[in-house]
C-alpha cells in the first residue's frame, strides 16, 4: 500500500522570500528519512494556476509518499520534521492545508519507482 501526503503552505505577507526559500531547502532534506517511501518527497511553488486566485494564496506545496499510516506517523513525529516545521513554518504561517490518502489498489502500480540514491 502507498499513502500520499499533501500539504499546501501559505505564509504571512511579512515573511521574506529568503525565509520561504530556506523553508523549501529544509523541507527537501526530509526526503532522506527512511519513512519516506523511496525518497519520494517533492516540494514546489509558486503556483502556476491560472487564474492565480484559484490557488487561494497558497505559495508552496509538498507531496510525499509513505508505505502506510505508520510510516506517515513516523515522518510526522520525527525530530527532523519537528525542527523544520517549528523553526521555519509554524511561527510564520498564515494557513496550511493537509490532505492524506491511501492509493487504491488498482492504482498502486503508479507508485512503484526505481530506488533513488539519496
Automatic annotation (TrEMBL):
Residue span(s) of domain Stress-response A/B barrel:
3-101
Q: Which SMART domains does the record match to this protein?
A: Dabb
Assembly description: Homodimer.
Protein name, please?
Stress-response A/B barrel domain-containing protein
Q: Which top-level group of life is the source organism from?
A: Eukaryota
Gene3D superfamilies in alphabetical order: 3.30.70.100
A Pfam family in this protein?
Dabb
